[in-house]
Write a structure and sequence with these properties.
The complex is a heterodimer of chains A (113) and B (112). Chain A has 113 residues and is mostly beta strands. Helices cover 0% and strands 53% of the residues of chain A. The termini of chain B are far apart. Classes of the chains: A mainly beta (113), B mainly beta (112).
Chain lengths: 113, 112
């Protein structure tokens, strides 16, 4: 079954405590991305990756880092979380082309106190 | 500029058709997408249309694209209670980023 998994699903943390949200896909997709979803704003892209070792900033990259050491994994790192990073985060993978497919993870709800 | 807009809420009776509308501003977008988000879940890609098409039908779903007015719609025929969800439209550009620009979502409520 094609899927994108994220962990953890829920996280409460405090300002400044580094955290990592993992993302893994089993479709061998080259393109992966991270989004945050905030009320009334839809989804906004944080970072994306075209392939292994190729990452780039999206629209709202400040305060986030990513890495892509293997094709299947694309972790999101918050080195020093702040309350304005409280949000719902989604990882996604895409198979770009004429018959495009996209899969989103189930989301990670983060609260930074 | 990049901007995608949707109305916030739509309520329909079960069995009726639903039409969810979306407007976009960037005429260089190449693909336009519709997604469904159920409570507590990620987005599910429902369908997409290439910008040189006017219409695409997939079972109960019909997508209409009016490029002149930059207007996209999703029609759901014979709407069921299981269709209650938030629906997002998005556009993408075939530049090096393949970035998706999302609308803020339309909450569809299907009344029995």
């Amino acid at each position: 079954e094609a899927q994108v998994t994220q962990n953890p699903r829920y996280l409460i943390t405090v300002t400044g405590k580094k955290l990592t949200v993992t993302c893994s896909q089993n479709m061998n997709h080259e393109y992966m991305s991270w989004y945050r979803q905030d009320p009334g704003l839809g989804l906004r892209q944080i970072y994306y990756s075209m392939n292994v070792e190729v990452t780039d900033k999206g629209d709202v990259p400040e305060g986030y880092k990513v890495s892509r050491k293997e094709k299947r994994n694309f972790p999101l790192i918050l080195e020093s979380p702040s309350p304005n990073q409280t949000s719902l985060y989604f990882c996604a993978s895409r198979n770009l082309g004429e018959q495009e497919t996209q899969y989103f993870g189930p989301g990670t709800r983060l609260l930074v106190l | 500029g990049e901007d995608v807009e949707q109305s916030l809420f739509l309520s329909v009776r079960e069995g009726d058709s639903s039409v969810i509308n979306c407007t976009y501003t960037d005429s260089s977008s190449t693909y336009l997408y519709w997604y469904k988000q159920e409570p507590g879940a990620g987005l599910q890609l429902l369908t997409y249309i290439f910008s040189n098409m006017d219409m695409k039908q997939d079972q109960r779903l019909t997508v209409l694209l009016n490029k002149k007015d930059k207007h996209l719609s999703l029609r759901i025929a014979d709407t069921q209670t299981g269709d209650s969800a938030i629906y997002f439209c998005a556009e993408t550009f075939m530049d090096s980023s393949y970035k998706l620009i999302f609308g803020s979502g339309t909450r569809l409520l299907v009344r029995p």
